[in-house]
Amino acid sequence: MANVEGMKNKFCGVIKHDDAVKYLNDKDKADFNYLCNKVECGRRKDGKRPVNAYLVINTDEPYADEVIEILKRNGHWGKGEAQP
Predict the structure, then answer these.
(1) What are 53-56's contacts with CB under 8 Å, separation 24+?
(2) Nearest CA to 50 among 40, 38, 60?
(3) In the predicted model, is pLDDT for residue 14 greater than 50?
(4) Cβ pair 59, 2 in contact under 8 A
(5) Where do the domains of the chain lie?
(6) pLDDT at residue 35 above 70?
(7) Could you tell me the pTM of the whole model?
């Protein structure tokens, strides 16, 4: 597993689509869609794109530490400061 020490948590979470389909009942899915829609509407009101796309990797992938180093070099780790 990758060393995620110092990682800044900027997101509420990531749910794999297959897991949502498998583990959420119809009401859960409707509730989840409602919450996502509220966030999208709020982002529109703020003049932001309603939905962003993100790259997500599991920390147990063999290349995760390499990705972390790339993020650090580009100021996307911890407090957002670029690290040598």
Answers:
(1) 54/11, 54/14, 56/14
(2) 40
(3) yes
(4) yes
(5) 1-84
(6) yes
(7) 0.68
pLDDT above 60 (res 60): yes
Is residue 10 within 8 A of residue 75, CB to CB? The reply is no
Q: In this structure, which amino acid lies at residue 65? A: D
CA–CA separation, 58 vs 77, rounded Å?
16
pLDDT band at 79 (very low <50, low <70, confident <90, very high): low
Provide the pLDDT for residue 25: 98
The two three-digit tokens of residue 69, written as one number: 């180093």
- Reference 56, options 11, 24, 20, 19; nearest CA is 11
Tokens of residue 6, six digits = 């110092």
Q: How far apart are CA 18 and CA 23, in angstroms?
A: 9
Q: DSSP letters along 18-69, please?
A: HHHHHH--HHHHHHHHHHHHHHHHHHHHTTS-S--------TTSTTHHHHHH
